[in-house]
Amino acid sequence: MDTATPDQALCRLDDIPDGGAIAVDAALRDGEENVIVLRRDDAVHAYLNICPHAGRRLDWAPGKFLIKDHLLICAAHGATFNDNDGLCVGGPCRGEHLRAVNVRIADGAVWLDD
Fold this sequence. Notes:
CATH architecture: 3-layer Sandwich
Number of domains: 1
Radius of gyration: 13 Å
Largest sheet: 5 strands, mixed
Number of helices: 0
């Protein structure tokens, strides 16, 4: 998988299933990271693919996420996060947040946004 840089799109909006998420590698200010990009209708939210509970990835297989009722579920220990703000609403890290990555949509693609 290629790593997106700020001058490249992370993905096309159509690459993300509505109500779903994908993982992409991105060159962020702090270094290269794996990023979760979630889509609901024409809105996207992005977070580092790191659970605040134990520092593990949230996907159950590379790029595959458990999402139910607008909640992203960590495959390791079951922490549940709102897809729109990254707040943990259940599980071992309740009250903590996923680390947000600023993104924008332009020309049908999702871009890093400083």
